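Thread: Class I SAM-dependent methyltransferase, structure

OP (GT): Posting the sequence first so everyone is looking at the same thing. Length is 242 residues per the record. Can we get the structure tokens written out before standup tomorrow? I want them in the notebook alongside the other entries.
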Amino acid sequence: MDRQLLSAIAHRDHPIAAPVSEASLDRLLRRAALPEEARILDLGCGEGEWSLRALELHPSARADGVDISPHAVAAASEAAVRRGLADRLTLHTMSADAFTAARPYDLGLCVGSTHAFGGLTETMEALARFVRPGGLALVGEGYWERPPTPEVREAIGDYPDLAGTVEAAESKGWLSVYAHVSDLAEWDEYEWSWTGTLARWAADNPGPDGDRALAVMREHRDMWLGGYRGALGFVTLLLRRV
């Protein structure tokens, strides 16, 4: 059972796929104040919730979603049809760093997917190739609220603090114009959804796949509850290309 399928299952009850509430998602997208007929690019779109909500809020906009997981792209396609948005969302099953476009975008999204480009600085450099001058990016990234143990840092990643994260995001010709810092309630909702949905699926599917899913869930939950809960932060930055 591949990891992409496990991730798709785990995110079924939380398609935002980040520690961000629906209200916070809407506030970020409204603050972008996109123009009429805006073009949106979502790199590492997952199940497409960020793009789909943007299209609902901006009825003349169109979006491209890019993700390497065929399971996530299939879920995004189904959601677009269900919400009457399939004619305005084009999905691409490919790695984000391989995507190219003939025209620039008004908004570039990359939330929780900066690893696709090798990190935050590289992601901002990549987004600058897609977003027009004066356009916007919404980028979600982890940071350390407090220093983690060496074991947790090795497992999760070597993130800077919040100030260092903002500095890195602005290092390639971008200016932060708004941000949302996820609170503990948003983190808990995300993590309990992730682990709980996977646990329920494992219980409903006994056998090797269920055992694998349960093992992944327990490993993740142990790392969260015993390691990074309260230490790992998440910020979603709205940045303008200058």
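GT: Both are above now. Quick notes for whoever picks this up: Residues 21-182+231-241 form a domain with the Rossmann fold fold (CATH 3.40.50.150). The chain is about 45% helix and 25% strand.
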